[in-house]
Description:
By secondary structure, the chain is α/β, with parallel strands linked by helices. The strands form two sheets. Strands 1, 2, 3, 4, 5, 6, 7 and 8 form an eight-stranded mixed β-sheet that branches. A two-stranded parallel sheet has the order 9-10. The chain has helices at residues 32-43, 56-61, 70-77, 95-100, 102-115, 120-129, 132-137, 167-174, 202-208, 252-269, 285-302, 312-321, 337-348, 359-371, 385-391, 397-407, 414-417, 424-443, 452-456, 468-473, 477-480, 499-531, and strands at 20-24, 50-54, 141-148, 153-158, 184-186, 189-193, 214-218, 236-238, 279-280, 356-357. 40% of the residues lie in helices and 7% in strands.
Amino acid sequence: MENTNKIMKAPVHKGENDRYGLVLGGGGSKGCYHVGVWTAFNEQGIHFDALSGTSIGALVAIFYPGNHIEPVTDFVMDMEPTNIAQDLPLMPQTLKQTIRGSRTILNFVIRYKDTRMDIRPLREHFRRMFDYETFKNSPVRFACMSYNDTKKEARPFYKGEITAQNAEDIVMASSACYPAFPKVVIDGDEYIDGMYADNVPIQLLQSILPEASWIAVVDLHDPGEPVPPALSEDMFYIQPLLQPGNPLDFSTHHAERLYAQGYLETMKYLGKYPGHLYTFRAEDKPLMDIVEDYIGLQLTQMKVVLPKADNLVHTLYRGVLGYIPPEMPNDLQDNYYFGQMVEALALMARVEPFALYDYKAFLEKIMANLESTSITKLNPEEFALVNLFKAISKEELPMQLYRMLKANGGRFSERVESLKERIPVSYTLAVLHYILQLLLDQLSPHQPHKTESQADEKISGQQKAPSDKRENDQLQPSLKTTPKNEPETPGQSEMQKPAAGRAADLKKAAGQAARKQSDLEQAAKAKADLQQKKPAAVPSLPASSPEKTEEQFLPARLPKYKEVHLPPLPDRNKEPEPSRMDKQSDRSGQNLTGQDLK
């Protein structure tokens, strides 16, 4: 089946004769994503009658009979390399870590070549977590895929042949990612990872649940890879939207992010949260629609024509990520064209994607991160425009273009406009940055906007020394205020509050709802004014609640993210440099001084 944008629907009500099946694909440490998916399905009351899994999918699925999720979640939250294999090193995240850890990794590889990886820690954890009696007595059907390396053939194992004595070996055989993990011997035959037979065992699930009325499939492949050949259009297909990372990275940080990614993305696949790569509260959808319309109307008033592209959103994603993420097929994606462009800007600004955001706070976070970005200081009277693109990095170019746009009152010079088709990503992100800054400046009139001289303090060579105060000032008060009587626990839910606290919250919520209705009416009037070509009026957006942070809307086990540690942006698919223009063309290819920008 081709990967289309067909909107997928989850069942609203499970009838007496309905049977649900779940397929969990292989992927090493990326299997922590499966646990987040499981959590989301549980939260929505969706329970399965049969599961099939390969590799890490089998290791997670075998705990599903009896809905035995607690020990699996604990294992994910406490994940570290030594829980998987003896002396397994941390996978490097940066070049510096690669250099520093090269000797440790080399010694591990040499030892592994001689003795193979010792996965006794993983086996010990499995024995402590697995309850065979719960598994056996549950009506949930189970099967896992392995590969018989002795006979060179696929070998599925079914629930009926799993005993208390062989359960461990069967699951380890399915997840024996050879040559990283050692082969497993069962009845004299050697077995290796089931991915060599079928990494997403859809047909295996259909064999144990032929009467299935609904099948969900979780495929841990990287974005851009083909979908499983057995996938059909009537199946509920879940795949990571963002690159899930190294399958051999068993660090705590990686495991927590994958768990959060699995939960949040599944909630979006189920149509419970809006957003594409980022996730927002369902009640913020009207607000997102207002911002969407505002951007479109503001572009019209500014008389800005965005660069031509077959799919400008895909162009932005490819420019920022290096690949095009899958679509999010749900009803909440309607009227979200510019919103996806804003998400591309957020990725460039290093805003953590795996958290549940208040939408206004999300926009504020983008602006705060962009304001703290260091850019190369250039004297506009000295540089040549076509050399500008050589003097700064790819990440700095949108910031430089934004400053040009701001200095010229929301307009680029004709010379800059002539280059936009060569720099579509940077041009579009700079325009969006400018429009969002206009929006937030008028929404927060009490916050004075930084002048050019103040902004220059963040330019390379003139940065202030870091301090705790400066770090805290980058966060909006609504994101760092915690009620005095409420403990600072990650992901605290409303039901965990005392009764008096909940009553007070309900009273506040009623007042906020009334204010929000008034704000939405005002925003609709502003939109009508724009359509009648009146002076642009920025809609009033609901203020962020000071009683909650975006993390407090997450399930109790979903981690908080205060620091952002994302990998550097890739250099692949780099936009063509204007200096390569045909020298015989018009003056847009000549050296231009800063005066030409005005």
